[in-house]
Records
---
Amino acid sequence: MSLDAQLDRIAARAEELRAMLAGGIAGEAYVRASRELAEIEPLETRIGELRAAEQARAEAEALRADPEMRELAEGEIAALDAQLPALEHEIRLALLPRDEADERSAILEIRPAAGGDEAGLFAAELFGMYQKYAALKGWRFELLEYADTELGGIKEGIAEITGRNVFARLKYESGVHRVQRVPATESQGRIHTSTVTVAVLPEAEEVDVQIDEGDLRIDVYRASGAGGQHVNKTESAVRITHLPTGIAVAMQEEKSQHKNRAKAMKILRARLYEQQRAALHATRAADRRAQVGTGDRSERIRTYNFPQGRVSDHRINLTLYKIDRVMAGELDEFIDALTAEDQAARLAAAR
């Protein structure tokens, strides 16, 4: 279908929805029609702007034949020729199939990979970086699990980040993040390379993933020492295993077994939902292990080089020499560039 035909169909659908709403529909049908109209009205506005610009250009082209109006007409044509491609580009972007998970909140999981203690230390710093980014965005950042080490690093950090379009902004952060620097424990001053895996999963509601209680094995045990934020003598820690997939989630952050179980179920639901999405969308990883890679030093999406003060994203060949600001949560320059690259690739594939 041509672009013009698509735009005509959208404009006609908007009019049809308005007629339905004015015609007295009620209940769930009214809610559905209102929601659909709200989604397409911004696009309808852009279509109207495009049509008006096209009409104005045609009128200016006609005026070119008049010697007295030629200079004025050519100036208007030049301005419209600059405006039209931008309007058309905006509309093509709006027509791209949307990832229905984009508007959702997200589960962030960070774990050290290669590099021992230094990887654990950098994992803690990355966890803090995303917490600062969430604060800059006005999102809520809730700790689900934080297993720390004696040196101040982490074995695992999991958080729920709640807000509008969280997953849309953070989904490109999944993968292996590499750090190059001289560790505090390095006496010879040598630069070490370590890696950390990051996984960002769209948060799932209960209606998204149906979990049969019979498919779960639930083990309870006492919370351990280092790595948990508390130690107690009751069996408050919970491990839930989803038997059909083998996915297991352990939680000991809370002193209440009930709260640990609720948090573990939230993470399990998110992992199962992402697995379903992966099966439906071949372009995404087939499972979480593929999403974050093996953690080997040669695999990486981004490198943080502290001696040179630079951060490089290898997927888009973008290097920023402001590592302190990036670690302080200023990630938008990377995320905007990654979003634009993804949109460009999808536009090219849609043509």
---
Amino acid sequence: MQMPQCFLRLVLCVTCGALPGVALAQTAAPAPTPPAAAAAPPPPTPIPFDDALLKAANDLFSKANLNGAPDKVTVVIDPLIDGVTGAQSKATHLEEKRIADLVKSSYPRFQVARFSAETLAKGPVVLIGTFTAVNNAGVAGGAKDAYRICLALADMKTKTIISKGVARALPEGIDPTPAAFFNDSPVFARDSSTDSYVKTCQGTKVGDNVDQAYADRIVVASLVNDGIEAYDAGRYRDALDAYQSALKTPGGEQLRVLNGIYLANTRLRRTRAAMDAFGKVVDYGLASDKLAVKFLFKPGSTLFVNDRSLRAPYDSWLQKIAERTAAKQGCLEVVGHTSATGLPAVNDRLSALRADYIKDRLEDDQTTLHGRLIATGRGSREMIVGTGRDDASDALDRRVEFKVSPCGGAPGGRST
């Protein structure tokens, strides 16, 4: 199963000169030659990960606009994320540790504090960052041959960006395996809270305002972080408490929170509560018109993997998706995706067959869905991660999506 990816569209404009004037007694002077268009700057040169991170972090702290700031500046780290999936990973955790160590050793004016509601109430400086696999030359659909590091410091008293640091890293030695919470989360969908984080980091320059949605939800983000840390450490009761507190806070109805409540209840063997939570995850995805679920299939097959620990919840997920779709009397397009491994034609066919299989399972669970589902296969044309590692780090590229579609199409239709 596979996922969508972001593309950079480059538009080249060529300016033509004016037409020459009409000659009378003598030939008119030639129109001045327009200046040649400036050549596009060459792409950044990726450097080893440690060097790239050090460059971005040193630029961030050495160039921070601290006019009027006290002698000691409190900085908290809102955990760094993948700029496409929103996931924390082994790579982003390593970045955070090395940044904190750098601050301690080289920038004593900054004091790193815990990312918590209590610290945020004092209006600290918040460090955010994204770590994103990219094609270094900016070629749409090109191989992901580098990682873009983006770091930003946001002064939460003034709600402005006071520094930025960017660099490109070579992929060698980087481990993008998602942290436990993100690896275990069954569902992915666009989350406005994650989008506002990415926008604040990647879509700003020094002096710009922090994205308002990010500022409004930063306290919720600290509670979500408490839950993720507890879950990753195996403290599932504490994780559940944190997620439930986040849900009750304004702005707390986020996919990360709903996924967390499902996962914590599952680990606590609270089956009914877990499936109620999964139903809310499904509702969230359907309301946003896209629900991506990580079903893992055998290579080259339409059958689920043999690993019982992985496939154990699949039947319950399918039943809940069918139940919630039927309850809303909705129609769905079931879309299969694959990684880029293998021939494109084979991937197209395989993704369509897997979507057909899921469609049939949903219709078996809820007969009222007959004629309201269509199955399509996209092969590897809409990868989200696109690194081609075929492991946990790019599992979203091997996914099945459920998209709300208009009812009234051909019953039981299928396209590939």
